[in-house]
Amino acid sequence: MKKLLFLFIVCSLFTAKLFAQSKIDRAEWFVDNDPGAGQANLLATYAPAVDSINSVSYSLNLASLNLAPGLHSVYVRARNANGIWGLAQFKQFYVTLNNGTLITDAEYYFDTDPGVGNATPVSISSISDSASYSGGLNIGNLTP
Q1: Using CB atoms within 10 A of its CB, is residue 29 exposed (0-12), middle (13-18) or buried (19+)?
Q2: What is the mean pLDDT of the chain?
Q3: What's the pLDDT at 34?
Q4: What gap in Å lies between CA 4 and CA 14, rounded to an integer?
């Protein structure tokens, strides 16, 4: 049985401004293959429309997608109140076969991978074959 060992998606960093003075009225997501703007899975609708999306929290049941083991990408995009879609932003994740391997450590980085064990460590509450993290990430050194 396929089991997602670790999924780390940072939606709280997803900030979208499509055009000056535009407001966002819809956001959607998809995995790997783009079905076309407006055809993906609904993430959120905003009525009235909002200036930006500062934080989105959404649980995905990736097991129901029957993804093959390997690297995959989850994409998120937003539409403005004029019906114009922005570019999709993505995060990558791995699906592996459950082979009894336990997760003992986790880490994160932005943009450039500094190598295994050299990124910012994340505290996990227990050693298990899966892990999740909800908490703050240090974004102080990121440029706009």
Answers
A1: buried
A2: 76
A3: 95
A4: 23
For tokens 């930006």, name the residue. 52
Ramachandran angles phi, psi of 65, nearest 5°: -85, -10
Instruction: Supply the pTM of this predicted model.
Output: 0.56
114 CA to centre of own chain: 20
Other CB atoms within a 10 A radius of the CB of residue 82 amount to 11
Query: What are the pLDDT digits (tens) for 43-97?
Result: 888 887 777 666 666 777 777 788 888 889 999 999 988 899 999 989 888 887 7
From 115, 133, 113, 114, select the one nearest 123 (Cα to Cα). Answer: 133
- Cα gap 137→130, rounded to integer Å: 20
Cα–Cα distance, 127 to 103 (Å, whole number): 6
Torsion angles phi and psi, residue 115, rounded to 5: 105, 155
